[in-house]
Amino acid sequence: MKAERQRAILRLIAEEPIETQLQLANKLKSKGFKVTQATISRDIKELGLIKIPGKNNKYNYAAPPEHRVTNVFGRLERMFQDSVVSFEDSENLILVKTLPGTAHAVASCLDNITWKEIIGTVAGDDTILVIIKPKEAVGEVMEKFRSLL
To answer: For the whole model, what pTM was predicted?
Structure first.
């Protein structure tokens, strides 16, 4: 059901401009899918959907570009050197402070580096929360971060 729903999402955004999660949910419901906003949000994240400029200064959902960053480690190293101000840990979390406006780019690099200890990131404008599992791996990740600087 999930795979079918996600295929339907990709078809819908390819066929017509969809600006909001609510719009997407309503379209899916009209196609017979039972969805909630939380389900739509998870699907958007899992599919890697992006927003692209549309008509009337509005943004529409689109599938991500097919290309992948090839030298992820080199990009992460450059991003750390250019953007990271500091980082500190608490329990299984690492808080990374960046220059304003650069947190999303650094977090994207961290997500794409596929270090098994990092289970995810949450980025704001200048702050990233990095979730580590297991908690004992925090020291190892902190050391990797230090080596990037």
So the answer is: 0.55
